[in-house]
């Protein structure tokens, strides 16, 4: 009887330790989880070549601004918001507003469905209304750009793991593959609206995991990009090395994105 009781106690203890280990593992595998009703800030800065993007947060953990410093250039993305909901994002350079994403509309699930890009100084750039539609999984499936009476579309396709695998644009088609590591940029709400002038960042924002290849076809031309993702001891991405080959065999200078965290 004593032996059975002892065996039972050991089994229970092992089960508890297993559950604790699983919970700890889950935390390490996803250090970007949000707290209830609050965004837990985690990203301090992104370094892209000579350009440094610093993230600044309010007391609730939502982004107030992103300040950018380059060799001969400084500017700020200023975010006006009420909690999670963004009212507008303005690009400010030399104390002047260069452009704004405003008139932001939401659906009943709190997702952005439309916003308007307003250029301030460049007469050659038109106001552009961007409209987003979602699939049944809540992923963006189409982006419409309307300006000067004409509209063109991007069509996005995701896999079952919330990764963008196909991005069809009017002039080119991109396809992607992924590793299992988590993408920190995916866990910042509506970051694509904040980068009013840097749409090249969008390819890194929509997927839950980190890309390892990209194949871009532009008419008869194509290029292949491979990514090497480096992680810290908490499974957080700290560097993404980018190597691109343009057919026929032209190798671009390696590029990279580096990530710094608040803790």
What does this 3D model show about the protein?
The structure is a single chain. The protein has 263 residues and is mainly β. The protein has one domain (47-261): Porin (Beta Barrel). The chain has helices at 2-29, 191-194, and strands at residues 43-48, 51-57, 63-69, 74-82, 85-93, 96-106, 112-119, 128-134, 140-147, 150-158, 164-168, 173-182, 209-218, 221-231, 237-246, 250-251, 255-261. Strands 1-2-3-4-5-6-7-8-9-10-11-12-13-14-15-17 form a 16-stranded antiparallel barrel. The protein is globular.
Please write out the topology.
Layout: H1 2-29, E1 43-48, E2 51-57, E3 63-69, E4 74-82, E5 85-93, E6 96-106, E7 112-119, E8 128-134, E9 140-147, E10 150-158, E11 164-168, E12 173-182, H2 191-194, E13 209-218, E14 221-231, E15 237-246, E16 250-251, E17 255-261
Antiparallel strand pairs: 1-2, 1-17, 2-3, 3-4, 4-5, 5-6, 6-7, 7-8, 8-9, 9-10, 10-11, 11-12, 12-13, 13-14, 14-15, 15-16, 15-17
């Amino acid at each position: 009887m004593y032996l059975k009781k002892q065996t039972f106690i050991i089994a229970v203890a092992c089960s508890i330790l297993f559950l604790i280990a699983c919970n700890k593992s889950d935390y390490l595998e996803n250090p970007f989880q949000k707290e209830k009703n609050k965004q837990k800030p985690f990203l301090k800065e992104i370094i892209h070549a000579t350009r440094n993007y610093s993230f600044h947060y309010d007391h609730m953990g939502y982004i107030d601004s992103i300040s950018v410093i380059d060799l001969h250039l400084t500017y700020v993305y200023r975010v006006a918001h009420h909690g999670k909901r963004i009212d507008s994002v303005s690009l400010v350079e030399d104390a002047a507003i260069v452009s704004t994403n405003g008139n932001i509309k939401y659906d009943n699930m709190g997702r952005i469905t439309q916003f308007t890009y307003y250029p301030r100084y460049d007469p050659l750039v038109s106001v552009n209304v961007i409209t987003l539609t979602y699939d049944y999984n809540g992923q963006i499936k189409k982006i419409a750009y309307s300006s000067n009476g004409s509209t063109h579309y991007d069509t996005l396709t995701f896999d079952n793991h919330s990764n963008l695998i196909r991005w069809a644009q009017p002039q080119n088609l991109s396809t992607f593959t992924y590793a299992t590591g988590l993408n920190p940029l995916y866990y910042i709400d509506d970051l694509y609206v904040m980068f009013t002038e840097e749409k090249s960042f969008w390819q890194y924002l929509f997927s839950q995991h980190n890309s390892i290849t990209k194949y871009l076809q532009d008419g008869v031309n194509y290029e292949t990009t491979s990514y090497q993702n480096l992680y810290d001891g908490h499974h957080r991405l700290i560097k993404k090395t980018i190597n691109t080959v343009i057919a026929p065999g032209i190798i671009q200078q390696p590029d990279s994105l580096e990530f710094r965290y608040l803790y």
